[in-house]
Amino acid sequence: MSDNLAALRKELNYEKTNQCVQCGYCLPVCPTYLTMGKETHSPRGRINLVKMAGEGRITDLSVLEEPLDLCLGCRACETVCPTGVEYGAILESARAAVTRRKKHSLPVKILRNTLLKKVFPSRKAMNLIGNAMWIYEKSGAQKLARKSGLTKMAPAHLGEFEAITSPAVSPWERSSLPAYTPAKGSKKYTVAFFVGCVMDAMFRKINQLSIQLLAEVGCDVIVVENQTCCGALHAHTGEMEESKRLAKRNIDAFEQAEAADFIVNNAGGCGGMMVEYDHLLADQPQWAERAQRFARKTRDISQILALCGGIKGKDRPAERVTYQRSCHMTNVQRVTREPVQLIRQLPNVELVEMKEADMCCGSAGIYNMVHYEASMDILDLKMEHVKDTKATTIVTTNPGCLLQMKVGIERENLGGSMRAVHLVEYLAEAYGLNV
């Protein structure tokens, strides 16, 4: 074997592809295989392509680009695989290998570098975006853009997503997120809260309510300085070195909260990334142990709320809800029981699980923007199952799922009879907190 091929095998995580026995158990749970019907768009098909590249039978790695790019990265295949194939590790290594060889045009290169290295990792930049959204709403520009049809002309179907985004909070409210919030009553735990990048810019109200709920159930809540983006978007787009850099920044930042029992997040995708920091940095001895400690402490907010006894909801009119499961929360964090438990504890709430509840909704970070048609095909399947539940509320645990479900409601013309909310919003509403 040549040195070049040996190096490529290591780069592709080739050894892990040998775990796949091509049995096909992954096919029925793969959203892209179900909607596209192509072997190359199934987990075993993608693994086979990577394997062929590692064996020198594919010499142009650009052949892998479309199949890998069209994968949602939901990792449902891992939960049904009888041989324990580490599909996520193979996918991210292969994407990184393709990205290293891809020649982007200068404008695309500048845009990628700006967004991935300057905007998402910067809380200051994300705050500016959040403030700009508030000005856009309050100045009347939003109404004018919608009335004139300008939003419909936006690229990547951004106008469709703009129409369903949550109201922005004011710059004054945005600057008031406390560094420390004491527990109400007797303290049970101390938690360090992860604010995220998109969550903090577009869903600041959910972050505020998360901190309030944690305090209500008995947690001292710390918001540490210098935390940054979790790095998930970077990993999913093949920018593994930048993802590692962000992971190190977060580990550094949260180690300052030595008193924290847990590191808590409220976004399934972010949590899925952070619980795997130990895998991400396993090859760096000076970081491996610190990453393991970080990952062991990481929890979704539903886990902590359930651990503290749940939320005592007030009596309300009877309501039927269904729960849209976050892929990375389900398949990576393996958090499935606590959100359901929290919803079922609420008075006068009937939870009806939808068919194929674990199936991806098609959001997958920015997948629904860069692969809109493929994403909508998956969403349409999901919405058929949602409608069958006859629920009036869809509860989600991830910002991407939340936006996608809102789009699904609009596509089905159900805006007058159905809504989508984050689990934190729903629990806060039931508890009587200001939403």
From TrEMBL:
Write down the PROSITE patterns for this protein, in alphabetical order.
Answer: 4FE4S_FER_1, 4FE4S_FER_2
Name listed for the protein in its UniProt record: Glycolate oxidase iron-sulfur subunit
Q: Which InterPro entries match?
A: 4Fe4S_Fe-S-bd (IPR017896), 4Fe4S_Fe_S_CS (IPR017900), Cys_rich_dom (IPR004017), Glc_ox_4Fe-4S (IPR012257), Helical_ferredxn (IPR009051)
Q: Which domain of life is it from?
A: Bacteria
Keyword tags: 4Fe-4S, Electron transport, Iron, Iron-sulfur, Metal-binding, Repeat, Transport
According to the record, the signal peptide region is none
Which EC number(s) does the record attach to this protein?
1.1.99.14
The cofactor required is:
[4Fe-4S] cluster
Report the protein's function: Component of a complex that catalyzes the oxidation of glycolate to glyoxylate.
Please state what class of enzyme this protein is: oxidoreductase
Question: Which species is this record about?
Answer: Paenibacillus validus
Q: Which reaction does it catalyse?
A: (R)-lactate + A = pyruvate + AH2; glycolate + A = glyoxylate + AH2
The 4Fe-4S ferredoxin-type domain is annotated at 8-39, 61-85
Q: Does the keyword Metal-binding apply?
A: yes
Q: What PANTHER family does this protein's entry cite? A: GLYCOLATE OXIDASE IRON-SULFUR SUBUNIT
